[in-house]
Design brief:
A two-stranded antiparallel ribbon has the order 1-2. The protein is 55% helix and 3% strand. The relative contact order is 0.20. It contains eleven helices and two strands. α4 packs antiparallel against α5, α7 packs antiparallel against α8 and α8 packs across α9. The protein is globular.
Length: 206
Amino acid sequence: MTAQIEEHGWTAVPRDFKVLLQGKPYLKEPTGILVDDIPWPVDELVTKAQEYAHGELGAQTYNHSMRVYYFARAIQETQFPQHALSPRTLALACLLHDIGTTHGNLRATRMSFEFYGGMLALRLLRGEGYGAGQSEAESVAETVMRHQDIGETGKVSFLTGLVQLATIYGILLPCSEIWRSSGIDGASQTTWAAMPNLYTRQHSRM
């Protein structure tokens, strides 16, 4: 059970980014890291989820989801190496975190896209042909539901906090001190080149 908590990113961390980063721009002086240095998980479940996301999401949202994975891995490896989060669980969360934003899904419910997307992700991952375990599927679903639940009180799971950080830094790249002041910037440049933001090119360093 303890291994699953770590592996699936259930460890509670501060919801406030300033507290999580101890009031600093970054916790550890990072070294340069490139997209090629970050392996994509070779896993049947990830492959199926990636095919699903690629087919459901528009190109701009799919590219965003892929960037979030690479940014999140760079942050995890350089700032939070003590967390044994599975790259598979992280990839699933990143691929599915915006699944509720598709044209069809936005019109299928009056719920917020985060909560509806979390329900879709849980149903998908626990469904036939996917078969993710309950702990992993629920961790991904909670992260989808809470990935925009940014605030200054309480706690979130480590997976949720990491995806929140990667999402915010991916969108506000030029304003993010952790990228400007550290070697993680190498990951940002190569990630933007490989998976460009089709509608916010002005944020790119390229």
